[in-house]
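Thread title: Can someone regenerate the structure for this chain?

I was given the following input by a collaborator and told the matching structure tokens would be attached. They weren't. Posting the sequence so someone can regenerate them.
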Amino acid sequence: MKIKALANDIDIKAYLQKIAVDSGAKEILAAKATHYLIAVESLHVGAANILKQDALSVGADFAVPRGTILATPSEVDGLLIATKRQLQRLAKKEAAQPFGLKEVSRYLHALTRTKRVSKVEIMGIVNANDDSFYSQSRFMGENAVNAIEKMIEEGADIVDIGGVSSRPGAEKVTKEEELSRIRPIADAIYKRKLYEKARFSIDSYTPEVIDYVLERGFSIVNDITGLEDDEVCKLCASYGATAVIMHMQGSPQTMQLNPSYEDVVEEVYGYLQRQSEKAASFGIDDVVLDIGIGFGKTLEHNIALLQHLSHFLTLQKPLLVGASRKSMIDKLSPSPSEKRLAGTLALHLKAAEEGASILRVHDVYEHRQALDIAQALKKPIF
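Best answer:
Regenerated them for you:
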């Protein structure tokens, strides 16, 4: 006999299949192996006691403050600790309970329905301007096309091209100037049919620019203003383009002056939910959500959003994370932008672990390698 502990993040379904577990039992057992920690805040004390007992009845637990059983405080915060299978059973129980527990039921149901992607996609960054914070991502004209071809060779699934810098304090650019920067690159992509090798995204919120590139093989609109402009919504719908909705507090010119939130996770979540509904109302079928790392956030805000990334999966949309070489790395481990690759990989691997479907990066080759190795480590080896 041999006994050995396995990694907690191993591909449990693959392991169960390898040891020939019955197909019907495989899903149930996999659900039992997936663990969740769920914070429930400002819960009615009566609901907390009900949830505690119901959690215990399914084999889970709900940690509550001392005095909860005596109803000393009127509201309490708690921590639900459970497997996916236990949450599924608990969701059914709470659907019939009072004190707001029906809302808990709906959340648990949504959370257990979320699906993780098997392959995280890489979005390479090409800045067709001379003002983006990382100078090595700036390319113009033919140099931009060469950079794009290199990114595709290195494993980019998507190439994101922007003619205007969105760094903190960046100067505004006219739509004519933005289009003049993008036009020759879009024309070259279309002429060389590069859109057959990778998907192309336009990092813009200018309707005239978006219209031009969608006519030339682009299929994604990466809008840092989160589809605030109805004209952008109409264009996405008419071309059948994917819309990336990002959260930003303020504008690039003001966003880092004094960003503040009562609850950054809930406020960003609410915004992305509202804008997703707006997208649907315009007939946009394909939406990706971006929590907007560095766009009107402090270091603490950015960390909180990454730590709670799986919460955003309940919106049932793919998640994009772009922390590549951003200043939060410098604040955690002092370094200039050209020496932030290691920090970027750490942040992005964590984002992928928490459910990100797309990583927006400056360094395609290094991310493809890191993701391939991380994926390989999850496969059971006998």
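The chain has a mean pLDDT of 94.
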